[in-house]
Description:
The complex is a heterotetramer, with two copies of chain A and two copies of chain C.
Chain A: E1 3-5, H1 6-20, E2 24-28, H2 44-48, E3 53-55, H3 60-72, E4 76-80, H4 91-98, H5 101-104, E5 114-118, H6 134-138, E6 144-146, H7 151-163, E7 168-172, E8 180-182, E9 196-199, E10 204-208, H8 211-224, E11 230-234, E12 237-239, H9 244-253, E13 256-259, H10 268-279, E14 289-291, H11 302-308, H12 312-322
Parallel strand pairs in A: 2-3, 2-4, 4-5, 5-7, 6-7, 10-11, 10-13, 13-14
Antiparallel strand pairs in A: 1-8, 6-12, 9-11
Helix pairs in contact in A: 1-7, 3-4, 8-12
Chain C: H1 10-14, H2 18-43, H3 58-66, E1 73-75, H4 81-86, H5 91-98, H6 132-145, E2 152-157, H7 164-176, E3 180-186, E4 189-190, E5 193-194, E6 214-219, H8 223-240, E7 244-249, H9 268-275, H10 279-289, H11 295-318
Parallel strand pairs in C: 1-2, 2-3, 3-7, 6-7
Antiparallel strand pairs in C: 4-5
The complex binds thiamine diphosphate (2 copies) and magnesium ion (MG) (2 copies).
Amino acid sequence: MPELSFREAINQAIAEEMERDDSIFIVGEEVAKYQGAYKVTQGLLQKFGEQRVIDAPISESGFTGLGVGAAMVGLRPIVEVMTFNFSLVAIDQIINNAAKMRHMSGGQLKVPLVIRGPNGPAHQLAATHSQALESIFAHIPGLKVVVPGTPKDAKGLLKSAIRDDNPVIFMESEVMYGLKGEVPEGEYTIPLGKTDVKREGKDITIIAYGKMVNLAMEAAKSLSSDGIEAEVVDPMTVRPLDDEPMIESVKKTNRCIVVSEAWPFASVASEIGYRISSKAFDYLDAPVGLVTAEDVPMPYNKILEHNALPTIEKILNAANSVLYKK
Amino acid sequence: MPELSFREAINQAIAEEMERDDSIFIVGEEVAKYQGAYKVTQGLLQKFGEQRVIDAPISESGFTGLGVGAAMVGLRPIVEVMTFNFSLVAIDQIINNAAKMRHMSGGQLKVPLVIRGPNGPAHQLAATHSQALESIFAHIPGLKVVVPGTPKDAKGLLKSAIRDDNPVIFMESEVMYGLKGEVPEGEYTIPLGKTDVKREGKDITIIAYGKMVNLAMEAAKSLSSDGIEAEVVDPMTVRPLDDEPMIESVKKTNRCIVVSEAWPFASVASEIGYRISSKAFDYLDAPVGLVTAEDVPMPYNKILEHNALPTIEKILNAANSVLYKK
Amino acid sequence: MSDYAVQTNTEEYLSLGRNKLVEMYHTMVLIRRFEESAAKAYSQQKIGGFLHLYIGQEAVAVGSIAAIHKEDYIITAYRDHGHAIARGTDPRILMAELFGKYTGSSKGKGGSMHFFDAERKMLGGHAIVGAQVPLGTGIAFKAKYRKEDAVCLTYLGDAAMNQGAFHEALNLAGLWKLPVVYIVENNMYGMGTAVERASAVTELSKRGSAYGIEGMVADGMNVFAVYDAVKEAAKKARELSLPTLLEVRTYRYRGHSMSDPDSIYRTKQEIEEEKRRDPLEQMKKFLLDEKIATQKEIDRVDEEVKQTVAECVEFAENSPEPPLESMYDDIYVQ
Amino acid sequence: MSDYAVQTNTEEYLSLGRNKLVEMYHTMVLIRRFEESAAKAYSQQKIGGFLHLYIGQEAVAVGSIAAIHKEDYIITAYRDHGHAIARGTDPRILMAELFGKYTGSSKGKGGSMHFFDAERKMLGGHAIVGAQVPLGTGIAFKAKYRKEDAVCLTYLGDAAMNQGAFHEALNLAGLWKLPVVYIVENNMYGMGTAVERASAVTELSKRGSAYGIEGMVADGMNVFAVYDAVKEAAKKARELSLPTLLEVRTYRYRGHSMSDPDSIYRTKQEIEEEKRRDPLEQMKKFLLDEKIATQKEIDRVDEEVKQTVAECVEFAENSPEPPLESMYDDIYVQ
Ligand SMILES: Cc1ncc(C[n+]2csc(CCOP(=O)(O)OP(=O)(O)O)c2C)c(N)n1
Ligand SMILES: Cc1ncc(C[n+]2csc(CCOP(=O)(O)OP(=O)(O)O)c2C)c(N)n1
Ligand SMILES: [Mg+2]
Ligand SMILES: [Mg+2]
């Protein structure tokens, strides 16, 4: 299988889908002439022209709402937010319009819309530009929320997201765009709402998604050299959450930690923590451990930033703690 | 003690504080001439004049941001949102400006701001007007989030919120405004971030806040007639969450349910569920049960609406379930 | 503006033909009676939530929708009864929606603020002030993207212009030359706040200049004035793909919603004064003066409407409540 | 606009006095050298995150801040180095902030985009485009509420005007007559998007008319032109409590941020052309032509600045990293 970067995988998914279906267009800041703030849309303007690859003014609420409107009448917009931090100025359009339209209209309308872009901290971008916001979107019925962790998953999931008839929040990561991984050649999709076991193990379950999958895999490797086999479970889609495979895994390992780079309070991580705690109640040998971002606005300083986020050490400590080691 | 409505209690708190400190002003839609969309600000214009009681255009982002700016330079604004549903158009100002200002400025600035108004469903207002949004705000470091359940608590907490030097989200309820309860005469405050045991019991802990406190109390009464004594625990402030008294309670009762009218996923309720599950791990005789709003946009129909929300029956069922009765 | 302003383009209006003219009157009367009936049902607690009546503003929906094609789109805010009825939605399913019934246009999930008729390209019914403006802009974007010969009428209130969503959407429409007609129904108040207490500029159509969008003003109490203005704006949208910001000066007779104590912010006298421009009366007078209809025919319209509204209520009353499980339907397309 | 436009009010500028004039030049040079030095440190990875350079725009911060009082407030976006320096913040603590050090103006928590100096009423440094505009409006509200003799200069980029927050804030300022001067630093691009590709109206100052706010335009490469315009606008704010929307035409020589491949959207030639209007060169020429300073004095300014900047870097280098626990500080006032 060829190796592609996360960026290329996403670019391919968009290009292939746009090729297939002319109701798809992409709109966002710097997506066209500039070739994407993070070069994710590189070459799309040249391929599909300015009717379908559209530079927008800095008006997230305006062009996200425009996307919702266009989706209500049959187009399939892809709205790129330069980062999800900026989706906050558009969140009313997402929560009150995109997510509720079908319900409010009694099923008359659908909103086949993808809102995508990088989420979470990158490199020293400080408080307003370093937010992992998936918990907010995952709270909202009517949305689907996808947070892929590998180039292969990103491509397959994004293609499904674009074909999905519902509004999908698709969260990438600036620091993952360069990450390489094997991506199957030719057409494939990965269904939304299906959890993937990324590594099998019998001693502890590590649940992680997005960027954190890679950290979890590294931690698992490290644990393995200590004789502990971790099962790494990746929901990929955080809403709807396919928790069955997580519960199954914990029934086998009896121990679990959840890793996420979002803030801890009322989060996807604590949701998963709660679900495991209650649904695998009789199987847990230790409380579910969480490894999340610290509960602080992100500081600019590099060292503080590193320490405000999950690290391998923190994962190993949490693992050891639920394994009652040291 | 005199009986006051929730509305009157809040009105008193605002009036007393404005009397005390002329750096406080209130701004929002229809707060002045109209006397408040829900009459919470009745009489304030007459008392304090149009310099301090200010009708705003429908520009939540504008006047919330104006409040943040005024707070940065020493005023103590109270921003009324007509309902918290409309805070979504202002959420960037709340999350990126109000909550982060102190941190980003390295402690140079503070933002003594209260954003208040009704939260949660009222009577058949349908999907966009029936959202209990506390989980979103409670996710954000830098904010405090208060959701009082009784007139007495509302008054004492609001006075503390107004005196607090941090941005406080203060969530009331349209359907509670008429609710009466005893309110102490004279000056008193209730500190933010302190959990209150509303009813003592030994058999099960029911954690509830806001409107749900009253439902929980009723359910407790009903359980009591079946010989089950429920302890009703009310955090009042959901961020920062004072979970100690909850854990203490569960250590005694060994069983717990959490009641909230917000959506379940990545919510305050599942956060509490997770915390109890892990911090009282060795004491729980059953998984923590949650009684929340159904995971749906709120339907208009009265019967559907009623059934989309926590009810006494649902609480009793959940209680019986964690008590392993029927 | 004089009361019952004389029609200037009488010839042209006559060319619309008797049927269309009587139908326009019929629709205005239907809207009014439908709402009066809804108000009654509300007071009987058969309807809940918010109920924002359109009474007084009927000429706007009827005049504007009469001026467009059935391929065109419309979208509005929560004060949406008039627009759905004018667009031809079966009023029975609208009344059923108000009653929250399963036969309602949104199966009882939407209520008064969320009338939708996808088939007739009536795209709601939206309850967050100003938030429908980007949607309407996106609908117009689709019309242009697909090279449809269609425009989108996007209605909003005077107070909605102060929302950021309005600003961002109009800039996009001006920049990308989208075939959209923004119709500001200036009824002089946003809830209890008079226009001049909310908008730094009170000549609302001028606010389009910030986006290179031409402004127009029309008398919103006169169905033909609205018709003319929308016709012209829609033509510009259709042929030149240019947006317009059209302010129509109108008035709501009732409170903002059912619970609005409107005496706080306006006088009885003002209301009575405005009622002298009543759009129904103006139209009726035109029909009679121009001998398009006789008093008897007018009476028959009133009678027909009465019966239709009675049927609406009956249909709504007799319709079933939605099954409980239906709350889980229509959230996701499976 | 001609290169090195002749000063029209020479007499008046001379009345500012030699010290102030030389100081203004000094500040402009300091901003430029400070940033060149920061750019170098960035390339050595001593500075991280985004670094948006102000080079080319120095006349705006310096001219505008020279025109106000120390009681006045300023607030800007993420391209904020020039404003803090012009306001008199110790450049050493600013450089330390860029290096993320504990001695930095925000203790290493803010970085380039978040310069604050509360003491000097420099209220940030804000990284969400347009979101500082309501803040600046609120600051002006406070000045009026407290009957202070103060105004708030609220800076924003050309592209920021397309945000809803801008619209809502300007309507409030127009409606409530707040003493705020909105200074749009029109550097012709928002990131890679030229003004005419983002704004339906390109005469940006005209967008104020939607809020009854007077528009002004000034040459942003000429420190006196900026000074004059801001002086006038601030006077209007101070005496009449009226807001102004001032567009200053300027240019950024560098990319949007350090990683910007700006050849995609503009030509080398355009950049060279603009550099001919260089604000530092213009000012230097004025000082020499008017015999306010000799070449030797000019050279001394350059030398002083060089030394200051070297001290900044040294201070930053030698300052300690913030302690880990400090990330939990300054979130809440206890
Ligand atoms: C963002 C938002 N803020 C506030 C409200 C509450 N609200 C509903 S209608 C309304 C007044 C709107 O006035 P206008 O736009 O003039 O329309 P009209 O009601 O006069 O038709 C207000 C304040 C809302 N629905 N959405
Ligand atoms: C709401 C929001 N959207 C997008 C961005 C990313 N972004 C940062 S600066 C910028 C360009 C702003 O241009 P302009 O306002 O002209 O200011 P300039 O950078 O030219 O000084 C963009 C798109 C952001 N920070 N905030
Ligand atoms: Mg109105
Ligand atoms: Mg710019």
